[in-house]
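new request in #modeling-help
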Amino acid sequence: MIDFTLTEEQSAMRQMVRELMMEQVRKRTAEIDEAGEIPGWVVELFRDLDLFTVAVPEQYGGLDGSLVTLCVVVEQIARVCPACSMIIGVQSLGATPITLFGSAEQRSRWLPAFATGEKMTAFGLTEPNAGSDVKAMSTRARRVEGGWRLNGRKTFISHANIADVLVCFAKVDVDGKDKISAFLVETDQPGFTVDKIEHKMGMRGSATCSVVLENAWVPDADLLGKVGQGLDILLKTLHRSRICSAAQSLGVAQGSLDISSRYVQERVQFGRPLAKMQAVQMIVGRMVAQVESARCVVYAAASKYEAKSRDIERFSALAKLVAADAAMKVSTDAVQVMGGYGYTVEYGVEQFMRGAKVFQIFEGANELHQMALARNLFGSPRGSAT
Ligand SMILES: Cc1cc2nc3c(=O)[nH]c(=O)nc-3n(C[C@H](O)[C@H](O)[C@H](O)COP(=O)(O)OP(=O)(O)OC[C@H]3O[C@@H](n4cnc5c(N)ncnc54)[C@H](O)[C@@H]3O)c2cc1C
């Protein structure tokens, strides 16, 4: 049985974040989008209100370390400002591999500073020629006395421009074979450069960076996990982070529904509000169903993760797929039922629609999750759903 009831603390957190976003951020989302950079004042706001604590475990200064709590918070942030939800989402994405695989020293060095937001992190996996096909990466780590030298290029790395440390994946030679390893690369060194920030259709308040590694130095103590353990580290990190990204998608879907459902009750055409027209009701009813279905699967996946379910890989893919598609469809329908006003920047739904698209692409493109779910089904003992 999955219990969807939030604890008192989670409900209070939900309420606090909702009020914060409505009172202090909502009116400035167009400005954030237009500026096209991470809004420093929102980062400060999140620091002041201890929101970064949801990204790390309790024993390192985190709130409760629960993925459900993280989902509750990012959902409420994304419901108003999708790009702002990346501030917490990316901090969690970088903190997770250190939490799961870091040495005691690595954890106590980084996690408390991530919890306060004093230090920021990023996750460096994707490369120009290694997107969905992560094993095609060409960044290499060479063993030298006392540590490693990394060379290569990472692309589409969220928030690398504000990160103090990059969790970076690179190939190493293990007995003549290439194996992926994970490294903690400190960014304040000459070997680390952000040489491009992408111009994007959406999520413009979240910086997406190209990183060049030129003999970047990583001491032995900053190898994450064991040599050659990188694939395991990245997969286990993504199983968790995809559920967080699914909660962000859910927020986008809910935010689109919030704005458009209010609008259709006020907008009068042909002598009555749009909300009284059956064709509009059909669309809005389907939007409600998609939002609530996404909510069920997101919190089911987060609860299963907390319960250490063996089914987590499947549920993580399921939540990511269902919620990303819901965000895309619901935000597109929101623009449609609002007509020309939905298409303007003023009402905010076009920003949701542009932002929604990326959830179908990053953290594993949706097509890959569809194939993984099918393969899982075909590989099950009965080979069918029934
Ligand atoms: C805004 C943004 C933020 C990002 N943040 C990060 C980050 O912080 N860290 C990081 O490491 N990466 C990040 N990424 C990268 C992201 O994870 C990749 O874009 C994603 O994995 C897809 O890789 P790709 O873009 O190279 O597309 P490709 O792998 O070239 O795929 C293109 C399309 O082809 C299809 N496709 C690919 N392979 C298959 C297949 N085997 N079967 C069927 N269809 C397939 C899919 O439809 C896919 O969408 C980010 C990307 C964006 C856009």
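bot summary: The chain has a mean pLDDT of 96.
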